[in-house]
């Protein structure tokens, strides 16, 4: 049976691999284009509307709150 330390190390290894796979899957060109659209809209006095239904709705609400509080 694995010790508690070994279990934590295995868990962190799995999380690390998952995070690495996630980062590798990000389309940074699309992310950069989205950033440019948001900044261009802001510069023109526009607004950013974030929407969703269900879990995406909760995420969009969190994102909207985050954008609102950070400017």
UniProtKB/TrEMBL annotation:
Q: Which Gene3D superfamilies match?
A: Glucose-6-phosphate isomerase like protein, domain 1
GO biological process, alphabetically ordered: carbohydrate derivative metabolic process
Which GO molecular function terms does the record list? carbohydrate derivative binding; isomerase activity
Q: Which UniProt keywords apply?
A: Isomerase
Q: In terms of domain of life, where is this protein from? A: Bacteria
Please state the span of the N-terminal signal peptide per the UniProt entry: none
Protein name (Swiss-Prot/TrEMBL): Carbohydrate isomerase
Species for this entry: Lancefieldella parvula
């Amino acid at each position: 049976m694995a010790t508690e330390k070994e279990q934590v190390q295995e868990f962190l290894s799995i999380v690390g691999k998952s995070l690495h796979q996630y980062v590798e899957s990000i389309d940074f060109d699309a992310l950069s284009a989205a950033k440019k659209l948001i900044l261009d809209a802001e510069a023109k006095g526009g607004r950013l509307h974030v929407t969703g239904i269900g879990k995406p709705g909760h995420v969009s609400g969190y994102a909207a709150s985050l954008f609102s509080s950070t400017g």
